[in-house]
Design brief:
- This protein has 174 residues and is mainly beta.
- It is 0% helix and 57% strand.
- A 9-stranded parallel sheet has the order 1-4-7-10-13-16-19-22-25, with no helix packed on it.
- The relative contact order is 0.11.
């Protein structure tokens, strides 16, 4: 395995790129600004981590192995995988995830307006908190439970495909 950052924190400065391969961020590690890049075939493990105010570009895997958050970030996941382990929670606040596969065996909790666009979301629970919006443009959700206490949004000219998904409460807007 690669290096582990435990509680101290790493920082990708604005307009700089921090390239990671098989790295684990644990115990309140915070990544701020700049770009975190995960190479093809490599894994970034998040456990108790908070990624904030930057960009994440992955051609590999971002694996949530412990409760973690992505705040005010853009995660480019094209051709890659974001996974959430069973019983774990990934909190999204002001975050856009674009592309790839989101394998959710736990919970994705939307606590601030966020989006998952042009992606395949499989399994788990998508929870949208009250007065918050989750945009799902050109996304397919399969086998997930969507607990919508806020709003699901699909922009005009875009589609949302649901297959074996259960939707409770909330509103869907276009």
């Amino acid at each position: 395995t690669g290096p582990e950052c435990d509680g101290g924190g790493s920082k990708a400065e604005a307009r700089k790129t921090l390239t990671r391969d098989t790295t684990t961020y644990t115990s309140n590690t915070t990544m701020e600004s700049g770009t975190v890049k995960v190479e093809e075939g490599k894994t970034l493990n998040l456990s108790g981590a908070a990624l904030t105010d930057g960009a994440i570009t992955t051609a590999g895997t971002v694996a949530v192995t412990g409760d973690s958050s992505i705040n005010s970030d853009a995660l480019t996941n094209t051709g890659a995988t974001l996974s959430v382990a069973a019983t774990k929670t990934l909190t999204l606040n002001g975050t856009t995830i674009t592309g790839g596969t989101v394998t959710d065996n736990g919970t994705i909790d939307v606590t601030g307006d966020s989006a998952i666009n042009s992606a395949a979301v499989n399994g788990g629970v998508l929870k949208v908190e009250a007065s918050k919006t989750l945009t799902l443009d050109d996304t397919t959700v399969t086998g997930s439970t969507i607990t919508d206490l806020g709003t699901l949004k699909v922009d005009g000219g875009k589609t949302l495909n649901l297959s074996g998904a259960a939707l409770t409460d909330g509103a869907i807007t276009t």
